[in-house]
Each structure stands twice: as structure tokens, then as C-alpha cells.
Amino acid sequence: MKRLCLILFIICIKNVLSFEKVLTINIDPRKEDCFYQHIKEGENVDLEYQVIDGGHGDLDITFTISEPMGRILHVDIKKPENTHHFQAQQTGDYKFCFDNTFSSYNTKTVFFELLVENDYDSDESDFNLAEGVSAEEVYDLKVEDIKEIVNKVKGHLSKARHLQDLFKSFEARDRNMAEENYFKVNTLSMVQLIIMVAVGVVQVIMVRSLFDDKSRVHNVWKHLDTKR
User: What GO CC annotations are associated with the protein (predicted)?
Assistant: First the structure.
């Protein structure tokens, strides 16, 4: 029983070993923010970002991915969202940069998710760590079946969490867009109201000036009529 638990523990550690980071960050106008993550050669990287709030401007951002030696892997110019998947060819600190230098006034809010996974091959050497476990015992325990189940559970959990984070980002973006439209509607309505009040006041003054000889506007009308 102890050997079975040890084998299951080794399988879980070897297959579920991964790193995930989820951030929501604000990129100020005329600024560029970069983040670094240490990634080993051969690891699989899944990355997704989405601009969920653009202030009073467009929902866009410039995004770059650079290798430890400085070579640029991917560049997105003023995009609202995108996903990237690649396998690391070098070991070191990879750089992920969000560039908002093209915006003069608007702060961008970006949802950012980074998933780094190890891709281990399945072979009998994986069980050499469990000393005293013979090949016959491993066969009897149907380890391959157990590994398949663990991998399926891990995959379903990762997908569920990814979808939850994605739905949260969609909700945040839609809410920010609704608030921005609400602000624009209120601003335009206020401007229209001020113009209507101003026009109404001017009309009242002009009409009154036609019947009031002592008003300054009436004197202006008389002066203009004299010049004619």
C-alpha cells in the first residue's frame, strides 16, 4: 500500500507540475511596463491578454515577447487581445512587455494570464525513484491507467480555471464599455442641455428687447438700423 501511494505521488508531481500567473494591470499613458518570468528550455508557454478598459480611448495595447538573449519572439501592434503558444528554446528570464507609449492621456487596464507547463515523457525510468518497486508490480497496478486519469483531471481543471478567468475578463471589459458609453451619453446630454438653455435665454432677451425701449439690446438694434 505504501508503494502504491508513493507511485501515485510521483505520478501526480511529474504530471501536474506547472506554473500559472493571472494579473490585471494598469498601463499609464506614455509608459511601458515589462514583466519577467524564468522559463526552462522545453517548457510549453501559453499566454493570453485582453484590454478590458481603455479609459476614454480605444481598447488596444502593443505587446512583445522577448527571449533571454534579447531576440523578439512575438509583436502585437495596438491589438485589443491575443493569445500566444510557444515552446521555450532557451533557459532564462523571458520578458513580456505592454507598451502604451502611443497613448497621450488614456490609461489601459489589461488582463494577463501566463501558464508554463513541463512536458514530461512517459517511460519506465519515471519509476526508478520508487526504490524497491519491480516492473511486475508496476504492471499489476496499471500505472498507465492511473496516469491517464490524473492527466485528464488536470486538463479539465486547467480548462475550467482558464474559462473562469476568461469570462471574468469579458465581464470586466463589457462593464467598462458600458460605463464608458454611459459617461459619453451623459456628457453629450449635458452639452445639449446647456446649448438649449443658452439658446432659450438669447431668444427671450431678443424678444423682450423688441418691446422694451430702455433695454441695451434695443439700443443696439436701433443703432444697427440707423447705420442702414
Answer: endomembrane system; membrane
With cell 507598451, the residue in question is 99
Beta bridge pairs of residue 86? 45
pLDDT of residue 123: 43
191 in a domain, yes or no?
Answer: no
Of 143, 153, 103, nearest in space to 123 by CA? 143
Residue 220, domain member (yes or no): no
pLDDT (average), residues 24-36 = 90
Per the domain annotation, does 185 fall within a domain?
Answer: no
Residue 107, domain CATH: 2.60.120.680
Angle formed by the axes of helices 216-227 and 143-211, to 10°? 70
Residue 85's DSSP bridge partners are 46
Element housing 210 (H / E) = helix 143-211
Predicted TM-score (pTM) of this structure: 0.55
Q: Which of 41, 12, 3, 7 is nearest to 149 (CA)?
A: 12
DSSP per residue over 37-65, as a string?
Answer: EEE-TT-EEEEEEEEEE-TTS-S-EEEEE
Residue 226 lies in a domain: no
What does the radius of gyration of the chain's CA atoms come to, in whole angstroms?
33
Q: What is d(CA 207, CA 217) in angstroms, rounded to the nearest whole number?
A: 10
C-alpha cell at 115: 501558464
Q: How many domains does the chain have?
A: 1
Distance CA 68, CA 217 (A): 76
Give the CA angle between residues 91, 10, 126 to the nearest 5°: 70
